[in-house]
Specification:
Elements: E1 9-14, H1 18-29, E2 34-40, H2 43-52, E3 57-61, H3 69-79, E4 84-89, H4 94-102, E5 107-110, H5 114-126, E6 131-132, H6 134-149, H7 161-171, H8 176-183, H9 187-201, H10 206-215
Parallel strand pairs: 1-2, 1-3, 3-4, 4-5, 5-6
Length: 221
């Protein structure tokens, strides 16, 4: 039994190998907070099932016929922005890994260690936390260092100082009118800054902005 405040995570599973699906399903269904509610044999079928089923999380194989997991991830994120996506793959491959991140995936799990990592990855995705296997962390660090070494600009901060000010005030619960008055800018400018914040941070609304502000220490919970 799961607690009322810990609802079951409804999972859409897509892999073109029935044997793999069966194995992954066994891993997930033995957890009280995870339930596979739909299975697909390729990316296109996964999108169709996402339209007809209530799902919280999609676990997608990268390499599938008709539509790959990467293509399906992009479609799924556009179709249902609230759905989290995990990529499941046999490829310990940096190129696939970075493509998965660009496609909107929250995590990248190797099939070879799925029995160890998959459940933790599912729960991390639902907490809006990325899940990366150790090799992926190394790849990210190496990618960052390569960019620095080649003189590419790697910003210390994602946000401008003004955007940070607006974010803090939004998170503290001030209205656009109040923020405009406090910063001596127009309401239209406040709205533009807020839209930029949502776009840059990949967030959807005030609640998510507030959570982000707490996480980075701009305000206290």
């Amino acid at each position: 039994m799961t607690a009322p405040d810990n609802p079951v995570i409804r999972v859409l599973l897509a892999d073109d190998h029935a044997l793999v699906r069966r194995g992954v399903r066994l891993i997930l269904d033995r957890e009280p907070d995870l339930e596979v509610v739909a299975e697909a044999g390729d990316g296109a079928e996964a999108i169709d099932l996402a339209r007809t089923h209530d799902v919280d999380l999609a676990v997608l194989d990268i390499a599938m016929p008709r539509m790959t997991g990467l293509q399906a991830a992009r479609e799924l994120v556009a179709l249902k922005p609230g759905v989290r996506v995990l990529m499941l793959t046999m490829h310990d491959n940096e190129q696939y890994f970075f493509q998965a991140l660009k496609a909107g995936a929250s995590g990248y799990v190797l099939k070879s260690v799925a029995d160890r990592d998959l459940v933790a990855a599912c729960r991390a995705a639902m907490r809006d936390e990325p899940f990366l296997y150790p090799g992926a962390v190394t790849a990210l660090i190496r990618h960052y260092l390569d960019r620095v070494r080649h003189g590419e600009e790697v910003p210390d901060q994602v946000l401008t100082a003004r955007e940070e000010e607006v974010l803090k005030l939004v998170a503290e619960g001030h209205s656009s009118k109040e923020i405009a008055e406090m910063l001596f800018i127009s309401i239209k400018t406040v709205h533009r800054h807020r839209a930029n914040l949502l776009h840059k941070l990949g967030l959807r609304d005030r609640l998510e902005l507030t959570r982000y502000a707490i996480r980075v220490g701009l305000i206290e919970a």
